[in-house]
Protein backbone atom coordinates (compact mmCIF):
# COMPACT_ATOMS: atom_id res chain seq x y z
CA UNK A 1 0.00 0.00 0.00
CA UNK A 2 0.83 3.68 -0.24
CA UNK A 3 0.48 4.95 3.31
CA UNK A 4 0.32 8.59 4.42
CA UNK A 5 1.50 8.91 8.05
CA UNK A 6 0.74 12.17 9.89
CA UNK A 7 2.31 12.91 13.28
CA UNK A 8 3.54 15.76 15.45
CA UNK A 9 6.48 13.61 16.60
CA UNK A 10 9.04 13.72 13.85
CA UNK A 11 12.76 13.85 13.23
CA UNK A 12 15.04 14.34 10.25
CA UNK A 13 16.55 10.93 10.97
CA UNK A 14 13.88 8.33 10.33
CA UNK A 15 16.19 5.74 11.92
CA UNK A 16 15.73 7.36 15.32
CA UNK A 17 13.81 4.96 17.55
CA UNK A 18 10.33 5.71 18.86
CA UNK A 19 6.75 4.47 18.82
CA UNK A 20 6.04 6.07 15.44
CA UNK A 21 9.37 5.55 13.65
CA UNK A 22 9.44 1.89 14.67
CA UNK A 23 5.94 1.40 13.24
CA UNK A 24 6.88 3.28 10.06
CA UNK A 25 9.91 1.03 9.55
CA UNK A 26 7.79 -2.05 10.18
CA UNK A 27 5.45 -1.06 7.35
CA UNK A 28 8.46 -0.30 5.18
CA UNK A 29 10.01 -3.70 5.83
CA UNK A 30 6.78 -5.33 4.67
CA UNK A 31 7.04 -3.56 1.31
CA UNK A 32 4.64 -0.69 1.80
CA UNK A 33 5.54 2.84 0.64
CA UNK A 34 5.36 5.29 3.53
CA UNK A 35 4.93 9.04 3.17
CA UNK A 36 5.60 10.60 6.57
CA UNK A 37 4.59 14.19 7.33
CA UNK A 38 5.64 15.93 10.57
CA UNK A 39 6.28 19.51 11.68
CA UNK A 40 9.55 21.43 11.77
CA UNK A 41 8.63 24.07 14.31
CA UNK A 42 9.71 27.65 13.60
CA UNK A 43 11.89 27.77 16.74
CA UNK A 44 14.41 25.56 14.92
CA UNK A 45 14.68 28.09 12.04
CA UNK A 46 14.72 25.40 9.38
CA UNK A 47 12.82 25.26 6.09
CA UNK A 48 10.50 22.52 4.88
CA UNK A 49 12.57 19.60 3.62
CA UNK A 50 11.97 16.16 2.13
CA UNK A 51 14.19 13.25 3.14
CA UNK A 52 14.07 9.91 1.33
CA UNK A 53 15.39 6.50 2.31
CA UNK A 54 14.41 3.23 0.68
CA UNK A 55 10.60 3.20 0.41
CA UNK A 56 10.12 5.87 3.10
CA UNK A 57 9.64 9.56 2.23
CA UNK A 58 9.99 11.82 5.26
CA UNK A 59 8.57 15.34 4.81
CA UNK A 60 9.42 17.83 7.57
CA UNK A 61 7.07 20.80 7.20
CA UNK A 62 7.87 24.22 8.65
CA UNK A 63 5.08 25.23 11.05
CA UNK A 64 4.44 27.45 14.02
CA UNK A 65 5.57 26.11 17.39
CA UNK A 66 3.10 23.53 18.62
CA UNK A 67 4.81 21.69 21.48
CA UNK A 68 6.34 23.13 24.65
CA UNK A 69 5.21 26.63 23.78
CA UNK A 70 2.71 29.14 25.16
CA UNK A 71 -0.99 28.31 25.08
CA UNK A 72 -1.86 30.97 22.46
CA UNK A 73 0.71 29.88 19.87
CA UNK A 74 -0.10 26.23 20.54
CA UNK A 75 -3.78 26.96 19.84
CA UNK A 76 -3.10 28.89 16.62
CA UNK A 77 -0.70 26.21 15.41
CA UNK A 78 -3.20 23.46 16.17
CA UNK A 79 -5.82 25.26 14.07
CA UNK A 80 -3.57 25.98 11.09
CA UNK A 81 -1.41 22.87 10.86
CA UNK A 82 -3.81 20.80 8.76
CA UNK A 83 -3.89 23.42 5.99
CA UNK A 84 -0.08 23.74 6.04
CA UNK A 85 0.23 19.94 5.95
CA UNK A 86 -2.30 19.50 3.12
CA UNK A 87 -0.63 22.18 0.98
CA UNK A 88 2.76 20.55 1.53
CA UNK A 89 1.49 17.02 0.77
CA UNK A 90 -0.04 18.14 -2.51
CA UNK A 91 3.19 19.96 -3.40
CA UNK A 92 5.77 17.31 -2.50
CA UNK A 93 3.71 14.13 -3.03
CA UNK A 94 1.67 15.35 -5.99
CA UNK A 95 1.82 12.06 -7.88
CA UNK A 96 1.08 9.77 -4.93
CA UNK A 97 -2.30 8.12 -4.38
CA UNK A 98 -2.89 6.80 -0.88
CA UNK A 99 -4.57 3.57 0.21
CA UNK A 100 -4.33 4.31 3.93
CA UNK A 101 -3.93 7.40 6.09
CA UNK A 102 -2.54 6.83 9.60
CA UNK A 103 -2.48 9.73 12.05
CA UNK A 104 -2.06 10.27 15.76
CA UNK A 105 -3.45 12.66 18.33
CA UNK A 106 -2.49 15.31 19.14
CA UNK A 107 -3.71 17.24 17.26
CA UNK A 108 -7.40 16.65 16.58
CA UNK A 109 -7.42 18.94 13.55
CA UNK A 110 -6.43 16.60 10.70
CA UNK A 111 -10.04 15.93 9.68
CA UNK A 112 -9.97 17.92 6.42
CA UNK A 113 -6.80 16.13 5.27
CA UNK A 114 -8.40 12.77 6.01
CA UNK A 115 -11.64 13.63 4.23
CA UNK A 116 -9.71 14.93 1.21
CA UNK A 117 -7.82 11.69 0.64
CA UNK A 118 -10.77 9.49 1.51
CA UNK A 119 -12.73 11.26 -1.22
CA UNK A 120 -9.93 11.59 -3.79
CA UNK A 121 -8.20 8.22 -3.30
CA UNK A 122 -10.86 6.13 -1.51
CA UNK A 123 -8.28 5.77 1.27
CA UNK A 124 -9.03 4.17 4.63
CA UNK A 125 -8.29 6.16 7.77
CA UNK A 126 -6.70 4.82 10.97
CA UNK A 127 -6.43 6.98 14.10
CA UNK A 128 -3.79 6.17 16.72
CA UNK A 129 -5.45 7.79 19.73
CA UNK A 130 -2.63 8.93 22.03
CA UNK A 131 -4.30 12.00 23.50
CA UNK A 132 -7.95 12.61 24.39
CA UNK A 133 -8.44 16.33 23.82
CA UNK A 134 -10.18 18.57 24.86
CA UNK A 135 -11.11 16.55 27.97
CA UNK A 136 -7.51 16.39 29.13
CA UNK A 137 -7.39 20.21 29.05
CA UNK A 138 -10.62 20.32 31.07
CA UNK A 139 -9.11 17.96 33.64
CA UNK A 140 -6.02 20.17 33.96
CA UNK A 141 -8.22 23.30 34.18
CA UNK A 142 -6.70 24.75 31.01
CA UNK A 143 -10.14 24.97 29.38
CA UNK A 144 -13.48 25.77 30.98
CA UNK A 145 -16.07 22.97 30.98
CA UNK A 146 -18.85 23.98 28.61
CA UNK A 147 -17.01 27.11 27.48
CA UNK A 148 -16.66 28.29 23.89
CA UNK A 149 -13.25 26.69 23.33
CA UNK A 150 -14.36 23.42 24.90
CA UNK A 151 -17.42 23.22 22.64
CA UNK A 152 -15.37 24.20 19.58
CA UNK A 153 -12.67 21.58 20.12
CA UNK A 154 -15.19 18.94 21.14
CA UNK A 155 -16.87 19.37 17.75
CA UNK A 156 -13.45 18.98 16.11
CA UNK A 157 -12.85 15.81 18.13
CA UNK A 158 -16.20 14.31 17.09
CA UNK A 159 -15.54 15.09 13.41
CA UNK A 160 -12.13 13.39 13.64
CA UNK A 161 -13.64 10.26 15.18
CA UNK A 162 -16.39 10.14 12.56
CA UNK A 163 -13.89 10.54 9.72
CA UNK A 164 -11.82 7.63 11.06
CA UNK A 165 -12.55 4.12 9.86
CA UNK A 166 -10.68 2.63 12.82
CA UNK A 167 -9.57 4.05 16.17
CA UNK A 168 -6.65 2.37 17.90
CA UNK A 169 -6.66 3.05 21.66
CA UNK A 170 -3.67 2.59 23.98
CA UNK A 171 -5.27 0.26 26.55
CA UNK A 172 -8.53 -1.47 27.50
CA UNK A 173 -9.46 1.52 29.69
CA UNK A 174 -8.96 3.80 26.69
CA UNK A 175 -11.29 1.68 24.55
CA UNK A 176 -13.92 1.70 27.27
CA UNK A 177 -13.64 5.46 27.81
CA UNK A 178 -13.94 6.31 24.11
CA UNK A 179 -16.96 4.05 23.63
CA UNK A 180 -18.76 5.25 26.76
CA UNK A 181 -18.22 8.93 25.99
CA UNK A 182 -18.90 8.80 22.26
CA UNK A 183 -22.15 6.91 21.82
CA UNK A 184 -22.23 7.79 18.10
CA UNK A 185 -19.35 5.37 17.44
CA UNK A 186 -19.97 1.81 16.37
CA UNK A 187 -18.26 -0.72 18.65
CA UNK A 188 -16.25 -2.20 15.80
CA UNK A 189 -14.59 1.17 15.14
CA UNK A 190 -12.50 1.15 18.33
CA UNK A 191 -9.88 -1.40 19.30
CA UNK A 192 -6.83 -1.72 21.51
CA UNK A 193 -3.63 -0.76 19.70
CA UNK A 194 -1.03 0.06 22.37
CA UNK A 195 2.20 2.02 22.25
CA UNK A 196 4.79 -0.34 20.76
CA UNK A 197 8.47 -0.42 19.85
CA UNK A 198 10.95 -2.66 18.07
CA UNK A 199 12.57 -4.20 21.18
CA UNK A 200 16.32 -4.15 21.65
CA UNK A 201 18.08 -6.41 24.09
CA UNK A 202 21.50 -5.16 25.07
CA UNK A 203 23.19 -5.53 28.42
CA UNK A 204 25.12 -2.85 30.31
CA UNK A 205 27.78 -4.48 32.51
CA UNK A 206 28.15 -3.52 36.15
CA UNK A 207 31.49 -1.92 35.28
CA UNK A 208 29.90 0.27 32.62
CA UNK A 209 26.96 1.09 34.88
CA UNK A 210 29.46 2.36 37.42
CA UNK A 211 31.15 4.53 34.78
CA UNK A 212 27.83 5.96 33.64
CA UNK A 213 26.83 6.79 37.21
CA UNK A 214 30.19 8.46 37.78
CA UNK A 215 29.59 10.57 34.68
CA UNK A 216 26.51 12.08 36.37
CA UNK A 217 28.02 12.14 39.89
CA UNK A 218 25.64 9.43 41.10
CA UNK A 219 26.97 7.31 43.98
CA UNK A 220 27.60 3.63 43.26
CA UNK A 221 26.09 2.26 46.46
CA UNK A 222 22.55 3.65 46.08
CA UNK A 223 19.28 2.52 44.52
CA UNK A 224 18.60 4.88 41.61
CA UNK A 225 15.06 5.99 40.73
CA UNK A 226 14.86 7.64 37.31
CA UNK A 227 12.13 9.84 35.85
CA UNK A 228 12.37 10.64 32.15
CA UNK A 229 9.98 12.61 30.01
CA UNK A 230 7.79 15.67 29.99
CA UNK A 231 7.76 17.92 33.04
CA UNK A 232 4.48 19.78 33.01
CA UNK A 233 1.02 20.13 34.51
CA UNK A 234 -0.15 16.62 33.43
CA UNK A 235 2.58 14.98 35.53
CA UNK A 236 1.42 16.52 38.81
CA UNK A 237 4.88 17.83 39.66
CA UNK A 238 3.90 19.04 43.11
CA UNK A 239 3.85 15.38 44.10
CA UNK A 240 7.33 14.87 42.64
CA UNK A 241 8.55 17.67 44.92
CA UNK A 242 6.87 15.95 47.89
CA UNK A 243 8.68 12.74 47.01
CA UNK A 244 12.04 14.52 46.92
CA UNK A 245 11.37 16.45 50.14
CA UNK A 246 10.15 13.45 52.13
CA UNK A 247 13.15 11.35 51.07
CA UNK A 248 15.83 14.05 51.37
CA UNK A 249 17.54 12.23 54.25
CA UNK A 250 17.50 8.79 52.64
CA UNK A 251 21.12 8.34 51.60
CA UNK A 252 20.59 4.82 50.28
CA UNK A 253 18.40 6.07 47.40
CA UNK A 254 18.96 8.59 44.62
CA UNK A 255 16.55 10.34 42.25
CA UNK A 256 17.52 11.50 38.78
CA UNK A 257 15.03 13.60 36.83
CA UNK A 258 15.55 14.01 33.08
CA UNK A 259 13.14 16.07 31.04
CA UNK A 260 11.79 19.38 29.83
CA UNK A 261 8.49 21.19 29.68
CA UNK A 262 6.55 24.03 31.23
CA UNK A 263 7.26 22.80 34.75
CA UNK A 264 11.03 22.61 34.32
CA UNK A 265 11.83 26.21 35.39
CA UNK A 266 9.93 25.81 38.69
CA UNK A 267 11.58 22.47 39.34
CA UNK A 268 14.98 23.96 38.54
CA UNK A 269 14.31 26.77 41.05
CA UNK A 270 13.38 24.21 43.71
CA UNK A 271 16.64 22.31 43.13
CA UNK A 272 18.64 25.55 43.29
CA UNK A 273 16.98 26.58 46.55
CA UNK A 274 17.03 23.20 48.31
CA UNK A 275 20.22 21.63 46.93
CA UNK A 276 19.09 18.03 47.57
CA UNK A 277 21.98 15.67 48.22
CA UNK A 278 20.28 12.61 46.77
CA UNK A 279 18.67 14.02 43.62
CA UNK A 280 19.74 15.54 40.31
CA UNK A 281 17.84 17.41 37.59
CA UNK A 282 18.96 17.23 33.94
CA UNK A 283 17.32 19.32 31.24
CA UNK A 284 17.97 17.04 28.29
CA UNK A 285 20.07 14.16 27.03
CA UNK A 286 20.55 12.52 23.67
CA UNK A 287 18.41 9.40 23.24
CA UNK A 288 21.52 7.25 23.38
CA UNK A 289 22.75 8.82 26.63
CA UNK A 290 19.27 8.68 28.14
CA UNK A 291 18.83 5.00 27.33
CA UNK A 292 22.23 4.20 28.84
CA UNK A 293 21.27 6.13 31.97
CA UNK A 294 17.98 4.23 32.24
CA UNK A 295 19.87 0.94 31.94
CA UNK A 296 22.18 2.11 34.72
CA UNK A 297 19.23 2.87 37.02
CA UNK A 298 17.22 0.54 39.23
CA UNK A 299 13.59 1.73 39.11
CA UNK A 300 11.63 3.81 36.58
CA UNK A 301 9.12 6.44 37.72
CA UNK A 302 5.84 7.39 36.05
CA UNK A 303 3.72 10.26 37.38
CA UNK A 304 0.30 11.52 36.28
CA UNK A 305 -1.83 14.19 37.92
CA UNK A 306 -4.58 12.69 40.05
CA UNK A 307 -7.25 15.01 38.51
CA UNK A 308 -7.27 13.18 35.18
CA UNK A 309 -10.58 11.56 34.24
CA UNK A 310 -9.16 10.21 30.98
CA UNK A 311 -6.95 7.08 30.93
CA UNK A 312 -3.47 8.22 29.88
CA UNK A 313 -0.79 5.63 29.05
CA UNK A 314 2.68 7.28 28.82
CA UNK A 315 5.03 5.72 26.27
CA UNK A 316 8.05 6.24 28.58
CA UNK A 317 6.90 3.00 30.19
CA UNK A 318 8.51 1.16 27.26
CA UNK A 319 12.06 2.42 27.87
CA UNK A 320 11.87 1.14 31.46
CA UNK A 321 10.52 -2.25 30.39
CA UNK A 322 13.19 -2.57 27.70
CA UNK A 323 15.85 -1.80 30.33
CA UNK A 324 14.44 -4.59 32.54
CA UNK A 325 13.81 -2.33 35.54
CA UNK A 326 10.61 -2.31 37.63
CA UNK A 327 8.23 0.64 37.43
CA UNK A 328 6.88 2.71 40.29
CA UNK A 329 3.75 4.64 39.35
CA UNK A 330 1.76 7.43 40.99
CA UNK A 331 -1.25 8.28 38.82
CA UNK A 332 -4.94 9.11 38.75
CA UNK A 333 -7.58 6.39 39.20
CA UNK A 334 -8.82 6.53 35.60
CA UNK A 335 -5.81 5.03 33.86
CA UNK A 336 -5.17 1.29 33.89
CA UNK A 337 -1.39 1.60 33.51
CA UNK A 338 -0.81 0.90 37.21
CA UNK A 339 -3.33 -1.93 37.40
CA UNK A 340 -1.78 -3.67 34.40
CA UNK A 341 1.71 -3.28 35.92
CA UNK A 342 0.61 -4.80 39.23
CA UNK A 343 -1.45 -7.60 37.67
CA UNK A 344 1.57 -8.66 35.61
CA UNK A 345 4.05 -8.12 38.46
CA UNK A 346 6.35 -5.62 36.78
CA UNK A 347 5.49 -2.56 38.86
CA UNK A 348 3.84 -0.97 41.88
CA UNK A 349 1.12 1.68 41.87
CA UNK A 350 -0.32 4.26 44.22
CA UNK A 351 -2.61 7.26 43.85
CA UNK A 352 -0.77 10.47 43.01
CA UNK A 353 -0.74 12.42 46.27
CA UNK A 354 -0.63 9.43 48.60
CA UNK A 355 2.91 10.03 49.82
CA UNK A 356 2.79 7.40 52.58
CA UNK A 357 1.89 4.60 50.19
CA UNK A 358 4.41 5.77 47.62
CA UNK A 359 7.25 6.00 50.13
CA UNK A 360 6.45 2.54 51.45
CA UNK A 361 6.82 1.20 47.92
CA UNK A 362 10.12 3.06 47.60
CA UNK A 363 11.34 1.20 50.68
CA UNK A 364 10.21 -2.19 49.38
CA UNK A 365 11.88 -1.75 45.99
CA UNK A 366 15.06 -0.10 47.24
CA UNK A 367 15.74 -2.87 49.78
CA UNK A 368 15.05 -5.92 47.63
CA UNK A 369 17.36 -6.43 44.67
CA UNK A 370 15.92 -9.84 43.84
CA UNK A 371 12.42 -8.38 43.65
CA UNK A 372 13.66 -5.66 41.31
CA UNK A 373 15.32 -8.23 39.06
CA UNK A 374 12.20 -10.40 38.94
CA UNK A 375 9.92 -7.47 38.19
CA UNK A 376 12.33 -6.14 35.56
CA UNK A 377 12.37 -9.47 33.73
CA UNK A 378 8.58 -9.71 33.99
CA UNK A 379 8.26 -6.27 32.42
CA UNK A 380 10.62 -7.09 29.59
CA UNK A 381 8.79 -10.31 28.75
CA UNK A 382 5.43 -8.54 28.93
CA UNK A 383 6.75 -5.91 26.52
CA UNK A 384 7.87 -8.60 24.06
CA UNK A 385 4.39 -10.15 24.11
CA UNK A 386 2.20 -7.05 24.27
CA UNK A 387 4.16 -3.96 23.25
CA UNK A 388 6.28 -5.18 20.34
CA UNK A 389 5.73 -3.18 17.12
CA UNK A 390 4.73 -6.44 15.40
CA UNK A 391 1.52 -6.37 17.42
CA UNK A 392 0.59 -2.83 16.37
CA UNK A 393 1.39 -3.60 12.73
CA UNK A 394 -0.72 -6.77 12.76
CA UNK A 395 -3.66 -5.01 14.45
CA UNK A 396 -3.74 -2.43 11.65
CA UNK A 397 -3.14 -4.93 8.85
CA UNK A 398 -5.94 -7.27 9.96
CA UNK A 399 -8.28 -4.71 8.34
CA UNK A 400 -6.47 -5.17 5.02
CA UNK A 401 -6.25 -8.94 4.79
CA UNK A 402 -6.44 -8.81 0.98
CA UNK A 403 -3.15 -6.87 0.78
Detail the poorly predicted runs: none
Determine the structural class based on helices, strands and strand pairing. Answer: alpha/beta
- Count of strand segments: 14
Please, how many domains? 2
Question: What strand line-up does the widest sheet have?
Answer: 3-4-2-1-5-6-7-8
CATH architect. name of the largest domain:
3-Layer(aba) Sandwich
CATH fold descriptor of the largest domain: Rossmann fold
The shape, in one word, is globular
Query: Assembly state here?
Result: single chain
Distance between the termini: 8 Å
CATH superfamily of the largest domain: Glycogen Phosphorylase B
Radius of gyration: 21 Å
In round numbers, the mean pLDDT is 92
Q: Percent of residues in helical segments?
A: 40-55%
CATH C-level of the largest domain: Alpha Beta
Topology:
Elements: E1 2-6, H1 19-29, E2 33-41, E3 49-53, E4 56-63, H2 71-92, E5 100-105, H3 111-121, E6 124-129, H4 135-139, H5 148-163, E7 166-169, H6 172-181, E8 190-192, H7 206-215, E9 223-230, H8 237-246, E10 253-260, H9 264-274, E11 279-282, H10 287-295, E12 299-303, H11 317-322, E13 327-331, H12 337-343, E14 347-351, H13 355-366, H14 369-386, H15 389-397
Helix pairs in contact: 1-15
Can you characterise this structure?
With 403 residues, the chain is α/β, with parallel strands linked by helices. The chain has 2 domains: 2-198 and 388-400, Glycogen Phosphorylase B (Rossmann fold, 3-Layer(aba) Sandwich), CATH 3.40.50.2000; 206-386, Rossmann fold (3-Layer(aba) Sandwich), CATH 3.40.50.2000. Helices cover 41% and strands 20% of the residues. The chain has helices spanning 19-29, 71-92, 111-121, 135-139, 148-163, 172-181, 206-215, 237-246, 264-274, 287-295, 317-322, 337-343, 355-366, 369-386, 389-397, and strands spanning 2-6, 33-41, 49-53, 56-63, 100-105, 124-129, 166-169, 190-192, 223-230, 253-260, 279-282, 299-303, 327-331, 347-351. The strands form 2 sheets. Strands 3-4-2-1-5-6-7-8 form an 8-stranded mixed sheet, sandwiched between helices. It has a 6-stranded parallel sheet with strand order 11-10-9-12-13-14, with helices on both faces. Helix 1 crosses helix 15. The longest helix is centred in the first third of the chain and has 22 residues, at 71-92. The model has no long low-confidence stretch (mean pLDDT 92).
Amino acid sequence: MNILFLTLVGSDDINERGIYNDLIWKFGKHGHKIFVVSPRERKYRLKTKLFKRSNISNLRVRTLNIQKTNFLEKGISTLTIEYIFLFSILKYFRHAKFNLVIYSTPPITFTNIIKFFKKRDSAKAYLLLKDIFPQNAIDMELLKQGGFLHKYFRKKEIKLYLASDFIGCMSPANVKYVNENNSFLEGKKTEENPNTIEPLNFHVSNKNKSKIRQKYDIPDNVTVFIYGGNLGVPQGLSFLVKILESNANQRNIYFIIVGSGTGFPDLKSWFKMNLPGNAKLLSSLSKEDYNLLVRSSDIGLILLDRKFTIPNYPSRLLSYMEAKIPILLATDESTDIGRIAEENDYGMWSLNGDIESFNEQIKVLSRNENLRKTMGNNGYNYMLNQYSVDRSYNIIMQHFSNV
